[in-house]
Amino acid sequence: MTEGVIKPLDSPIQLPAPIYRDLRAIYTLWLRDIIRLWRDKVRLVGSLIQPVLFLFILGGGLKGRFSGGFSGGGNYQQFIFPGILAMSILFTASFAGIAVVWDREVGFLKEVLVAPLSRTAVVLGKVLGGSTNSLVQGLILFSLYPFFGIHLNPARFILAVMTMFVIGLAQTAMGIALSVRMSSSQGFMVLLNFIILPLYFLSGAMFPLNGLPKWLSLAVILDPVTYGVDLLRGILLGAHHFSLLVDILALGAFGSIMIFLAVRLFNMESPV
Amino acid sequence: MIRIENLKKEFVTPSGIRTAVKGLDLKVGTGEFFALLGPNGAGKTTTISILATILKPTSGSVRVDDLDVEKEPHLVRQKIGIIFQDPSLDDRLSALENMEFHGRLYGMSRNQRRERTEILLHMVDLWNRKDDLVRSFSGGMRRRLEIARGLMHYPRLLILDEPTIGLDPKTRRVIWEYVHQSRKKWGMTVFLTTHYLEEADSADRVGVMDEGSLVALDTPEKLKKMVGPEIVILQTDPHSLESVCQYLENTFGIRDFHSEAPGELTFPMPTGVESVINIVRSIPASIRSMTIRTPDLDDVFIQMTGKNMVLNQENASPFHRVYRGKL
User: What number is the ipTM of this complex?
Assistant: First the structure.
């Protein structure tokens, strides 16, 4: 045993102010997610397969069938590109919720819950980690845009990245809010499919929003993901269904509500 | 260091409200080594979870270092190091990364983290595996890493919930040595729950908890004296066990019998009665053998709770339980 000399210490650790301490904790939680993402490169690549199949096979196959009918004058492949980007982010972001359930299952969540940081910091750290993760996946897919004849100036490029990040943020927060009461990751997967697939299909990612039956267009309006997809399409293709201001407000409201909800639920006593 | 007053904790379950802790009162002084014993389901882990600010009390007050666990959970958490009964490591990170993560969350500087990690990983003999992912660790190695991590931020109060389950005797000894060193170095208080009674034996005070409240609280020596000066173990014919019990109770007022094997009978000798030899000689049944020993904490436990600590564990054979039920 190589034991150095430790003075009889009362509190050797200089405690920073609560805000600074929470910021550090958020960074620490984020860092852990990034290390884990980097270590799990197989998952990173694997989760790109599905959106790529959608883009090239579904998009390529239907491109010739639906020609010219899309707002902005693009083809079907161009039309679904923003939708597929949103899909990729949606699914990856929801995984952050599974990660929380998984942490609970393996017991690591207890280590975080007894550490001196607020529950709010726990949620924000997880939300930032999860949305960074989904942004990385989204960016890999996004880098394919020149292949679809999409041209972007730097301003649009940056706006698109920001939109993707906000969609990820909102979805991660939703996943985490849903995870609070869940103790089995399998049960959580079922719940997620139940929620995410309808959100995705109703978002207009795969079809244009004009001329829909009344019940369907109502469902589309109620789906918060619709506005993220529409905003992304507006930025990438210059074609959008709602006004961009409506899109931005709806997306921002959805994100804020989800983060608020996740923080509230997490602050209640949760079974560990 | 710890002041628990009239603590109650209720859980809502599908079968109604279950009270896990019923009006617990307990004080533990700074630097004290306190051990809490109790059968499974006695409320030990619930009490610890409330101390560690994971659960909130239903009523009553809990203070750690004069801080209320409900009102100032962050400050309480900074002072506590906890080693859980179940694993709580990130197995996709390395041993070093797990330590780093902990040190950062507890506000330690880079130098402090580096220094503590090195000392503690050497202590638990994991320094040469520091860069390996925890996934590749055995159960005992994970346990050791958790103990190192719990001590990392110089906790004022170390909470150990069944900490040494699954550890070999050598590792247990090394860890206990370090825990006691830390108590001396920075006046750390230790709050332990354990099934290993010899670990509780070296505690300053022992509390026995049963069905949500304390049934005994004193130094190990005094608790053992309460049981009686001696414990007698008789080997007799399994069929006459019950009549022997009745005879001893009616004639000498001996109680608290229990049995751990067929035909075996264990009971504490009350003080101020006749000598053991005379009593045993007078039993109207054949006695094959007799053993006399001094009481240990297990005897205290049996007398206080009517339950056997050892039999409470998972490895108790069904036979033992059935047999005990008959007595």
Answer: 0.83
Nearest CA in chain B to A21: B107
Selected residue of A13, A114, A118, A269 to mutate for chain B interface (largest B Cβ count, 10 A): A114
| Residue A5, pLDDT score | 37
Q: Which two tokens stand for residue B112?
A: 């402090």
Contact B88 A107 (CB under 8 A): yes
Nearest CA in chain A to B56: A269
Beta-carbon separation of A32 and B93 below 8 A: yes
Segment (H or E) for B216: strand B213-218
* Lowest-pLDDT choice from A247-256, B216-225, B228-237: B228-237
pLDDT in tens, A162-183: 999 999 999 999 999 998 878 8
Q: Identify the residue whose tokens are 């109060």.
A: B157
Give the distance from residue A14's alpha carbon to the nearest chain B alpha carbon, in angstroms. 7
Concatenating the DSSP letter of every residue in B191-208 gives: EEE-S-HHHHHTSSEEEE
* B133, two tokens: 């992912």
User: What CATH number belongs to B227-326?
Assistant: 3.30.70
| Domains of chain B, residue spans | 2-218, 227-326
| B107/A16 touch (CB, cutoff 8 Å), yes or no | yes
Report how far residue A263's alpha carbon sits from residue B239's, in angstroms, rounded to the nearest whole number. Answer: 64
Q: What separation, in Å, do the N-terminal and C-terminal C-alpha atoms of chain A show?
A: 35
Judge: A35–B187 Cβ closer than 8 Å, yes or no: no
Residues of A in contact with B67 (CB under 8 A): none
Is A110 within 8 Å of B92 when comparing Cβ atoms? no
Contacts of B158 in chain A (CB under 8 A): none
What is the C-alpha separation between B189 and B202, in angstroms, rounded?
A: 14
Residues near B320 by beta carbon (within 8 Å), at least 6 away in sequence: B260, B261, B311
CATH of B2-218, one of 3.40.50.11710, 3.40.50.2000, 3.40.50.360, 3.40.50.300: 3.40.50.300
Find the chain A residues whose C-beta atoms sit closer than 8 A to any C-beta of B.
1-4, 6, 8-16, 18, 21, 24-25, 27-28, 32, 35-36, 39-40, 103, 106-118, 269, 272
Q: What is the pTM of this model?
A: 0.82
Rg (CA), chain B: 23
Q: What's the pLDDT at A150?
A: 86
